[in-house]
Design a protein that fits this description.
- The complex is a heterodimer of chains A (458) and B (277).
- Chain A is an alpha+beta fold.
- Helix content of chain A is 58%, strand content 17%.
- Among the domains of chain A are: 150 residues, no CATH class; 159 residues, Heat Shock Protein 90 (2-Layer Sandwich).
- Chain A has a 5-stranded mixed beta sheet with strand order 6-8-9-11-10. A 4-stranded antiparallel beta sheet of chain A has the order 1-4-3-2, with helices on one face.
- In chain A, helix 3 runs parallel beside helix 4 and helix 7 runs antiparallel to helix 9.
- The longest helix of chain A has 58 residues.
- Chain B is α+β, with helices and mostly antiparallel strands.
- Chain B has one domain.
- Helices cover 44% and strands 27% of the residues of chain B.
- Chain B has a 10-stranded antiparallel beta sheet, sandwiched between helices.
- Chain B is elongated, with a radius of gyration of 32 Å.
- The chains are: A alpha+beta (458), B alpha+beta (277).
- The interface between A and B is large, with 62 and 54 residues.
Chain lengths: 458, 277
């Protein structure tokens, strides 16, 4: 049974029952009152007849007694005078007591619709029974007619109310039907489906809540899909990056194993290649390990002056950059942040190394730090080849390489910037990149300044 | 599926309306029971039995009932009876004789005089004025005579003998209808004696004329007399263990002959008659 039927049928049943019971009660009450009025009228007639009789008797009799013939004549004529033409009156002289314990006065309604009233009275020395009969058949027939009228009106009114209740119940359950359709579509995967609603009743509020729920599901589903896609891509990239050095290692190892006549020079070259690729694998695996574990490891945060740290790391890197013909310049303003120094050092070295790789000999890498709006800003700016604008958003993804050949040649695997972003995030910081092709790239790291008494923020 | 649901709902709805429609009649017949509404019974037998007894006592013992109900009140006027006897000897002397008394007895008797009170039916409509209660001690017990007179001092009620004053407590009055054939000759004779006493009195004659009007028109009737009317009237008898009253009813006229059960003789009469004449 549908909801509208569950609402409509009991409502209709109750309403009809109510109508019929009320109508019937009114009819019965009306009829009862009319009948009681008739009964009272007959009893009143009887009472008036008796009073009038006693008065007439007193006036009429010349001695103490009246003959039974005179009495009967008086009784009948008095009764006739006191009643209308619908009333029949008869009198009977009771020589003997006919009752013997039965009620001698009574009023009743006979089956033929006649009210029968019997009164017994002792008049002028004798016992008289006075019977009054009033025909109630027309009244009873009128009652039946009224019942039929109520039936007819009851049918019409019930039908009208049924139609109204039907429209009402269908109208009330329409939003439920819409919600049912919506849940069907949402459960089928159509998370963008929304229920149209009007008003502010409970069903409208329910529709609104369902729309909000669908929106949440849609957002969460998109997020999960994105995470899943990223993970899949990460694994594919990682597999690819691991496979490239392994291929070289396996290839040259196989050459060394199967080639019988190989010169010492060739052996040394092949061994160098194997060693270099293995080193690369080691570096790759350690960076992957850092990248994976950084978000899961509890960092040991201590106040660190980033100017001091940058200066130290730049100084340590200066031989490498010098070898590449790249000049390092520093502009450092002291700024203390809460950080794990080792990780932060890794972040800076990665940024400087990336800048060096992108820079041609003779170019300059400018390293700076400053405080701004309660944050420490660290910038590493190079004058290198730059990053195409459309790729800037992707360069912080793991294994993403703008120029794969160049990156691999430089010993990279596209993990550096992803690791930098992860380290910055671990320090409640952000990493932003501004770049212009053939003009250079500036990477800015923004980390909240340390304030005394806030050690627990990490 | 939806169409099927609508059809089922419409059918159920139609059934509800039908049930309601026919339910009206059923409900009406269940709730509305005109027979039980109208029926009402009561028993008034005790009431009319008491009324009958009271009425019977009133007929049998008119003096004590009048005294009890305050219709009469004692007054000075013992001389009134003697005066009446002097004024209407043709009535009172035969009447005393009928009662077994002599005029001289009245001089030694204890006579109480009662006056009918105004605003009573007896005084206003039947014209009764005085009632004399004569008590005469005798060797075999007290003998009493009750005479009620109208405004013309005609004795319209006379009752004599022993113990005729107060009705016996606890005794019940029986009422019977008598057929003409059952009446004794003694009754007719006694009625004849009263005729003889009252034949010259106006009240008596008025009664006779009024009674004559009540007789069947197609029959030839001699001049009215109580004895004659005894043969035409309806008869009722009120009786207890000591007294009986034979009531002769001629339409709206009547007279009463009293009978002493213990003596087995008639002991009085009543021809009280109202002013309608």
């Amino acid at each position: 049974m549908r909801l509208w039927q569950k609402i409509f049928l009991p409502s209709a049943a109750l309403t009809m029952a109510g109508i019929f019971v009320i109508a019937m009660s009114l009819v019965v009450r009306s009829h009862t009152l009319q009948l009681m009025a008739q009964k009272e009228a007959v009893m009143s007639d009887s009472s008036k007849i008796m009073t009038e009789l006693e008065r007439t008797l007193e006036e009429r009799k010349r001695g103490y007694f009246l003959s039974s013939a005179i009495m009967e004549e008086l009784l009948v004529s008095s009764c006739r005078e006191m009643t209308d033409e619908t009333t029949e009156v008869s009198v009977r002289l009771l020589r003997e007591n006919p009752y013997e314990g039965k009620d001698d006065n009574f009023i009743c309604l006979k089956e033929n619709g006649i009210i029968y009233l019997q009164t017994t009275a002792f008049l002028s020395g004798e016992l008289w029974q006075i019977n009054i009969e009033k025909n109630m058949q027309p009244l009873l027939e009128r009652f039946q007619e009224e019942v039929r009228t109520v039936q007819a009106y009851g049918v019409v009114v019930s039908m009208a109310i049924s139609v109204f209740l039907l429209i009402l119940s269908v109208g009330i359950t329409r939003p439920v039907k819409k919600m049912e359709e919506a849940t069907k579509r949402i459960s089928a995967g159509d998370y963008s489906y929304r229920i149209a609603y009007k008003g502010s009743d409970e069903l409208s509020e329910l529709s609104q809540r369902m729309n909000e729920m669908a929106a949440h599901i849609e957002t969460d589903t998109d997020y999960i899909e994105k995470v899943s896609e990223n993970r899949r891509k990460f694994i594919a990239d990682m597999t690819h990056e691991l496979k490239t050095p392994l291929t070289s290692i396996l290839g040259f190892a196989d050459v060394l194993r199967i080639k019988p006549d190989i010169s010492d020079e060739e052996r040394r070259d092949y061994a160098d290649i194997i060693f270099t690729e293995a080193e690369r694998l080691k570096l790759l695996s350690s960076r992957l390990m850092e990248l994976i574990t950084i978000s899961e490891t509890k960092l040991q945060m201590v106040p660190v002056d980033i100017a001091r740290l940058l200066a130290r790391e730049a100084e340590m890197y200066r031989p490498v950059s010098g070898k590449a013909g790249v000049l390092l310049t520093l502009d450092l303003e002291p700024a203390v942040i809460l950080a794990e120094e080792t990780l932060l050092a890794t972040l800076f070295v990665n940024l400087i190394d990336n800048a060096r790789k992108a820079s041609a000999p003779g170019k300059t890498i400018h390293i700076s730090s400053r405080r701004e709006d309660a944050r420490a800003l660290i910038q590493v700016a190079d004058q290198g080849i730059g990053i195409p604008e459309e790729q800037i958003a992707y360069v912080t993804e793991a294994f993403y390489m703008v120029d794969k050949a160049r990156t691999r040649k430089a010993g990279g695997a596209g993990i550096g910037l992803a690791l930098c972003k992860a380290i910055a995030a671990a320090h409640h910081g952000e990493l932003t990149i501004e770049s212009k092709v053939n003009a250079g790239t500036t990477v800015t790291v923004s980390i909240p300044l340390y304030e005394s008494g806030s050690e627990d923020q990490g | 599926m939806k169409g099927k649901g609508i059809i089922i709902t419409a059918i159920v709805c139609a059934l509800l309306i039908t049930a309601g429609t026919f339910g009206i009649s059923l409900l009406y017949q269940t709730i509305f029971q005109p027979e039980s509404l109208m029926e009402e019974r009561s028993d008034s037998e005790t009431g009319w039995r008491e009324a009958k007894q009271a009425y019977g006592r009133e007929v049998l013992y008119p003096f004590s009932c009048a005294l009890e109900s305050g219709v009469i009140a004692e007054t000075d006027g013992a001389y009134l009876l003697l005066d009446s006897c002097h004024t209407r000897p043709s009535v009172y002397l035969p009447l005393l004789e009928l009662a077994g008394l002599e005029f001289s007895d009245l001089e030694t008797a204890n006579v109480a005089t009662y006056q009918y009170q105004s605003d009573t039916v007896e005084a206003d409509r039947y014209g009764m004025q005085y009632l004399f209660h004569v008590r005469l001690p005798q060797s075999d017990g007290e003998r009493s005579l009750i005479i009620a007179v109208d405004r013309e001092f005609i004795p319209v009620l006379t009752l004599y003998g022993t113990e005729k004053v107060l009705y016996p407590e606890g005794d019940s009055v029986d009422v019977h209808t008598l057929e003409q054939g059952t009446l004794s000759e003694a009754l007719f004779e006694y009625a004849g004696k009263i005729d003889d006493i009252l034949v010259l009195q106006a009240a008596y004659n008025s009664l006779m004329i009024a009674a004559l009007e009540c007789l069947p028109a197609e029959e030839e009737h001699p001049t009215g007399s109580l004895r004659g009317y005894c043969a035409h009237g309806e008869w009722q008898m009120y009786s207890d263990s000591s007294m009986a009253a034979y009531v002769c009813i001629l339409e709206d006229c009547n007279f009463v002959l009293y009978y002493d059960v213990s003596d087995g003789t008639f002991c009085g009469y009543s021809i009280a008659f109202n002013d309608l004449r």
